[in-house]
Write a structure and sequence with these properties.
There is one protein chain. The protein folds into two domains: 111 residues, Rossmann fold; 178 residues, 3-Layer(aba) Sandwich (Rossmann fold), CATH 3.40.50.720. The chain is built from ten helices and twelve strands. Strands 8-7-6-9-10-11-12 form a seven-stranded parallel β-sheet, covered by helices on one side. Strands 2-1-3-4-5 form a five-stranded parallel β-sheet, covered by helices on one side. This is Hydroxyacid dehydrogenase. Keywords: NAD, Oxidoreductase.
């Protein structure tokens, strides 16, 4: 009886063939191929995760040994239960680094050149030549989160003659960052920043990290960008800061509740950019993702362990 690799989504035949070349012991199955007689006891690996699988796979008799997450963030997964059943977890960290970098750079260029103001004036048919214009390299850009995405963004900013500042857990130096500080120094660094970009994973420590106190610390002329996790931001606090103009602008790609409700007051603000969680959209996703999975599958098949993007279930990243 074959062991199963159960996936939340289909993949092209070329990648299924690569799996078979590594081992013929496994059969690739998508969630749409599950039938009444499906033997859940034979599922040893999943690609992605569905909450509908919890009662089938997170049981004392489970054969599940490894979950390969499709996203970089794993905060929505049942991590405590994975730990209880000694299930290995890997993520897709780095897969979206360039896409999210491109998204943030687009915002930075539009913000520094006054393009958002120009669009609003165009919609009102107003010839407004007095726009807020800055040289990007003159702005102090604070990147909160110096993982693979933060590093790629910092690399591109450094190429543009910017001097990005990084925040991480302990302030360790990271390539491409002009300076780095620990998370306990976030407030004093926030006071000096013109642009603050959140790329942190969601953990107990980062839930509502950006609250009333944080936004009160920001410069009135500063911009806040969130391409990390929506629940890192206290939405009520951010809304009030934007309404009061105690901060200049916000660009949000992630939200505490998605999709953002049609009657959410954020929609009515002029000093905000709302995008529908698209910053990580990546061309050629399957090819990029399968580089991670196939490498891990080879390692798992030969050693029982993973070689790439292993997640520490206790810390959540």
């Amino acid at each position: 009886m074959s062991k199963y690799i159960l996936s939340t989504r289909p993949f092209r035949e070329e990648f299924i063939r690569q799996m078979r070349e590594i081992s013929t012991d496994y059969q690739f199955v998508t969630k749409d191929e599950i039938h009444d007689s499906f033997d859940w006891n034979n599922v040893e690996i999943t690609i992605g995760w569905s909450k509908d699988w919890r009662d089938k796979l997170l049981v004392p008799s489970t054969s599940l040994k490894w979950v390969q997450a499709i996203s970089a963030g794993v905060d929505t997964l049942p991590l405590k239960e994975f730990a209880q059943h000694h299930i290995q977890l890997s993520n897709a960290s780095g897969l979206h680094a360039q896409s999210i970098t491109d998204h943030v750079l687009a915002i930075l260029f539009m913000q520094s050149r006054g393009i958002f103001e120009a669009i609003r004036s165009q919609q009102k048919q107003i010839w407004q030549s007095e726009l807020t214009i800055n040289n990007l390299q003159d702005l102090r850009i604070l990147i909160v989160g110096t993982g693979k995405i933060g590093q790629q963004l910092a690399k591109c900013l450094a190429f543009l003659n910017c001097r990005p500042i990084g925040i991480n857990t302990n302030g360790r130096a990271i390539e491409h960052f002009h300076e780095t500080y620990s998370i306990v120094e976030l407030a004093p660094q926030t006071q000096k920043a013109d642009i603050i970009i959140n790329i942190l994973p969601l953990t107990e420590d980062t839930y509502h990290l950006y609250d009333d106190d944080f936004f009160a610390t920001m410069k009135q002329s500063a911009t806040f960008i969130n391409v990390g996790r929506g629940a890192s931001v206290d939405t009520t606090a951010l809304y009030q800061a934007l309404v009061d103009h105690s901060i200049h602008f916000a660009a949000l790609d992630v939200f505490e509740e998605e999709p953002l409700a049609e009657d959410d007051p954020l929609w009515m603000l002029e000093n905000i950019l709302i995008t529908p969680h698209i910053s990580g959209y990546t061309p050629h996703f399957q090819k990029s993702f399968m580089r991670i999975f196939i490498e891990n599958f080879k390692s798992f098949h030969t050693t029982g362990n993973l070689s790439k993007n292993t997640v520490n279930i206790q810390s959540g990243y």
